[in-house]
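Dear colleague,

Thank you for sharing your sequence with our group. We've completed the structure prediction you requested, and as agreed, I am returning the results in plain text so they can be pasted directly into your records. Please verify that the sequence below matches your submission; if there's any discrepancy, let me know and we will rerun it promptly.
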Amino acid sequence: MADWNTELYLKFEEGRNKPIRDLISHIYVKSAGRVIDIGCGPGNSTILLKKVYKNANMVGIDNSPNMIQKAKQEYPEITWILKDIADDMSDLGKFDIVFSNSVLHWLPDHTKLLPRLFDLLNEDGVIAIQIPYFFGTPIYRPLYNLVESKKWDSYITVKQPTTYNDVGFYYDLLSAHFSSFDIWTTKHTHVLSSKDEIINWYKPTGFKAFLDQLKTNELKEAFLSDIHPIINDIYNEQKDGKFLLRFERLFFVAQLTK
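Please find the predicted structure tokens below.
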């Protein structure tokens, strides 16, 4: 995929931080020596972890040069590494906390991926993961109907760029590796000021994999233009003029025990 747009992504930083704060609040560890944030983006999740684990050696990794550059500029006290988590990570060592927010759905085969992340844990180490359930949002099915339509079918060849599994899948995977863990879903409600903001919320995330397949700005704009009627049909204006974007997410936290 094309590199990430850090400016547009951070436009909704507080909203994007909601699930990060929720996930951190369920990590019942008072201190940690080494913490890694996998898919750290521009560092907004990593710095929230650093505020809780002030004395930890904090490492953030991401495969986006733009994201890592932004993170280095904003938080030079943290170690930032440009690295794809699909590659071998054994050279990074072991960690007391392995954290990942809104990343794993971009990667296939979680049956193989997650045990690789478990292997990064120290004894008594904790893994904390959040996976957005984009398929549960009202826009998901209409969006994919558009992608699969005659107009866009030849332009957008990768129709399913993300990986989603149900709660039972992750429960079975975790129960095979951990004696106890927490797993839950939460639906966050994000208050946005306009329908254009709904488009801008999704442009650097849920729409990105489709937009990246379109070769010209004209095609990108035409695709976004076709999304506007979908937004109009789904999202209703509240009495104060705002719009509510509801988004379900899967969380799990698990700790190795001796």
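Summary note from our side: The two ends are 41 Å apart (CA to CA).

Kind regards,
the structure core
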